[in-house]
Amino acid sequence: MEQVSAFQAKTHLSELLKKVQAGEVFVITHRGKPIAKIVPFSEEIEFDPKEGLSTLKKIRSSISSKVNIKEFINEGRKW
């Protein structure tokens, strides 16, 4: 991951964007401190496994423990 100053990024934006499009990642710095990251655009949805697990636990706890799986199976067979 290459670091580029804000001035360099502004001056060479077209070149920088071509490299990003090719898959490179850049960190933009201002006075030596990182302020931004330029990464190739992706249509993929980022997934946080911890957040997914937390959601599943909430769903599971909201389902009554009195639910009988055999009743669900029999109910499904009726359809």
TrEMBL record:
Signal peptide: none annotated. InterPro entries: Antitoxin_Phd/YefM, phD-YefM_TA_antitoxins, YefM-like_sf. NCBIfam families: phd_fam (TIGR01552). Antitoxin component of a type II toxin-antitoxin (TA) system. Belongs to the phD/YefM antitoxin family. This is Antitoxin. It comes from Leptospira sarikeiensis.
